[in-house]
Amino acid sequence: xxxxxxxxxxxxxxxxxxxxxxxxxxxxxxxxxxxxxxxxxxxxxxxxxxxxxxxxxxxxxxxxxxxxxxxxxxxxxxxxxxxxxxxxxxxxxxxxxxxxxxxxxxxxxxxxxxxxxxxxxxxxxxxxxxxxxxxxxxxxxxxxxxxxxxxxxxxxxxxxxxxxxxxxxxxxxxxxxxxxxxxxxxxxxxxxxxxxxxxxxxxxxxxxxxxxxxxxxxxxxxxxxxxxxxxxxxxxxxxxxxxxxxxxxxxxxxxxxxxxxxxxxxxxxxxxxxxxxxxxxxxxxxxxxxxxxxxxxxxxxxxxxxxxxxxxxxxxxxxxxxxxxxxxxxxxxxxxxxxxxxxxxxxxxxxxxxxxxxxxxxxxxxxxxxxxxxxxxxxxxxxxxxxxxxxxxxxxxxxxx
Length: 401
Ligand SMILES: *Cc1c(COP(=O)(O)O)cnc(C)c1O
Hints:
Aspartate Aminotransferase, domain 2, binds pyridoxal-5'-phosphate, 13 strands, seven-stranded mixed sheet
């Protein structure tokens, strides 16, 4: 195995890590999949916004670009990371709220169908939102997985999905990269299966956007959403994005009817008519402050190229898996062994890891812990060095040393 030193010196993306804000107390940050580090460029952007826009333009700012910002950043994100032509992506709300809006819009577009499919290994918020919508609309949920003890490195394959799809399926809700195992789903193949059954699909890209390339238009995806504070480095609670394929925008109706998503917000009229296009999927006043930092990361992704980012991501997870096999022989890899089948994080399971993580945090080594016994190691390619990975795996072997 190559040393981390030789991997870092051969890494064409190594120089970008200097663009991120660093704290001397953090020696190995392994949770960029949960909250990305800030770019130093964002400090100036936020400060400038405060003084030159909010502070001086005040209410006039809305008419001078703020109202267009959600769709403008959405177009940039679509071009840089999603494979989406303009007019189909918008920033706003949390991923949870956007899941609700998109899944509700999709089930309402299949009124003669009675069931939503989702997997047991999906992120809790996705499952909870589906449970809420099923109760609200009198639908049933068909679960993938959970019949027996779930395989912790398992994901949704075409075979598992095919067994559940039927002519009663209205909508399928899936994650592109599974939040615990890192399993990378085959979006084009699964989307095709879902369409062949006459259903719609909502893809959650929270753990892939900015690190795993997608081609939403070419893959025929219906609807998608995902976080901007993970690999898009938008900051804690930064608003999520929604993708609605152009030809579905006229057909689908989202359920949170607010004035900003109406056809003529400033006429203050009676009765709601949705705006044409992607703006009809927005609801209230856009969270402009929250959209500032992600613009710096989207610009950096464009500069570097999403394919180059994916290449480094694969190298980082491969290195982490090799080191763990060598240094942590009692830990079980709870992620796919094939790098082509995983996103940018891995999970290692071992009893007692719940006791290890607080010790690591105290020494500035920051992965996270996922029940029942997993240390999750997230590798954000533009801010993480191979040396950081080595230091982190060493620290798991000798916590508190
Ligand atoms: C992180 C994550 C979320 C978080 O949703 P919020 O509304 O931002 O809390 C949702 N889904 C998946 C798959 C995630 O990984």
